[in-house]
Amino acid sequence: MIRYTLKCDKEHSFDSWFASAAAYEALQARGMVSCTICGSTTVDKALMAPAVRPARKAAAAAAPEARAGAGAEAPLSAPQTGIEEAFAAMRQAVEANSDYVGVNFVAEARAMHEGAMPERAIHGEARLDEAKALLDDGIPVMPLPFLPKRSRN
Question: What distance in Å separates the CA atoms of residue 3 and residue 22, rounded to the nearest whole number?
Answer without folding.
Answer: 12
